[in-house]
Design a protein that fits this description.
single chain; alpha/beta; D-Maltodextrin-Binding Protein, domain 2; 2 domains; 8-stranded mixed sheet; two-stranded parallel ribbon; 10 strands
Amino acid sequence: MNVPGKVRSLLAAAILSSFAATAGAQSYPSRPIRLIVPFPPGGSVDHVARIIGPTLSEYLGQNVIIDNKGGASGTIGTYEAARAAADGYTLLMVFDSHAVNQHLYRNIKYDTFNSFDYISLMVSAPMLLATAKNFAPQTVPKMIAYAKANPDKVTYGSSGVGGSNHLYGLAFASQANFSATHVPYKGGGPMLTAILGGEINYVVTTLPVVMQYVKSGQVRALAIGSQARVPQLPDVPTIAEFVPGYEANSWVGMMVPKGVPKDVLAKIEASLRKTLESADINARLRSEGFNVIASDPEQFREKVRMESERLGRLIKQSNIRVD
């Protein structure tokens, strides 16, 4: 059968394109990989990134370089990742705030679900009700009584408007029937600096990030947000012991820009899973209070969808908005 020259050329181009794509995936990665952390150093996401970074580099076969791009509750760095080339050389780690930012920002420049390929829900952790050393109440009942006697004078900090520190701090005050004043900061690091310096009275923050300050006596651990007490702080009660039904947990996950080749996605996912399941990394994360999940992409996407719906209702009811 005679094949016209133009058709032969098109077939050859298609074969070469397919070969190039396959060869590209097989050679990935051939240069260092950028890992965007959309928060300043010192917060939960940055902490996890620095724990896993060296081991992830080993499994991927290239250096993974952490790039902190903080601001606007993670949306600035997330947008930078969304518009990056979908070639596997830009990774993004997100906090639980990723699930709610579309409810907070009117002009968000990316789609929470359609701008990314989801890789894995990496870890979760219970949140801790921690108070400044210069804040007089030393138990949850005394704190609630003090707050009720001093409406709006008790302050709580967050890593940004609409983040988990904000929403769970608000939920604690609401469920305990007192009013408090929210003080947002530009990331978890500045928020921790504020509680350490006594600028605010309390935070509801990820346990592993604040653990060292609890152990050193720089902040006071009043109660844990999990359903049961945790082995790292066995004498610290749960918040639910005093405020029935209250629960607060945070999480960290990884995504990439939408459209990364499937073979490259598979390598990133496998490398991340091996990292999280490696003995040293797994033991360190668990010892600090993280629950290692290492979910598949669909489980992660579903988690974000459910959180978005649940916390989106709280945001709407509380009329929380970022101008």
